[in-house]
Structures are given as structure tokens and as C-alpha cells.
Structure to design on (112 residues):
């Protein structure tokens, strides 16, 4: 399912005429520092499920390596989840949304 989402995002970027300015990929947390160079990534989306919440420190560690200064991370979390924000990130925005009958909280951080 993740790869079909990446294909759909790439197709939408092509239709919007921005395919040459954006690249969508799906990576596992364990592969980030192998797949990307230091400070190579400018945007990341992380869907943090209940089973992944205990890996938050590791997520920040890996993303701190691959994200450039000023890069943004969009966390998709369950409503009521309090995201701990480390010192090298600041909150950009925080809002709750409903999609397909489910509620989510979107928290966007910027690497400083």
C-alpha cells in the first residue's frame, strides 16, 4: 500500500507540473542514514502509530542526520498524543483533522 501511495503522489506531481522539483520515496527508519546523505532531505512525513511511539527518540535521531537546516517534518499522530519536541526542532503548526471517519493530529516541526 505504501508504494501505491508513492506512485500516486508522483503521478499527482507530474499532473501538477512539479515532478522535476519534488521526489517522493518511502523509507524505513532503519534505512534513512544508509539511503540518504547527511542533510540531504528537506521534507519528511512520519505516521506515528501506537506501536511506533516508543521509537520516537530513534526517529528524531535518524531524521536529525538526514534533514537539512530549515527542513520540515510532518508527524501524523493520534489525537491526544503529546509529541515531545527536542531542542533542535521547533513547532511550525499543530492541528487536528478528520479524514475518512478517523481523527488525526498533524504536527509540523522545523529543524533549527
Amino acid at each position: 500500500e505504501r508504494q501505491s501511495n508513492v506512485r500516486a503522489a508522483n503521478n499527482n506531481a507530474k499532473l501538477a507540473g512539479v515532478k522535476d522539483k519534488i521526489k517522493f520515496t518511502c523509507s524505513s527508519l532503519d534505512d534513512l542514514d544508509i539511503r540518504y546523505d547527511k542533510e540531504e532531505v528537506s521534507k519528511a512525513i512520519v505516521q506515528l502509530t501506537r506501536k511506533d511511539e516508543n521509537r520516537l527518540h530513534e526517529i528524531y535521531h535518524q531524521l536529525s542526520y538526514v534533514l537539512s537546516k530549515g527542513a520540515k517534518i510532518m508527524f501524523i499522530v493520534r489525537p491526544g498524543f503529546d509529541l515531545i519536541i527536542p531542542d533542535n526542532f521547533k513547532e511550525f503548526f499543530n492541528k487536528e483533522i478528520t479524514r475518512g471517519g478517523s481523527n488525526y493530529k498533524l504536527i509540523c516541526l522545523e529543524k533549527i
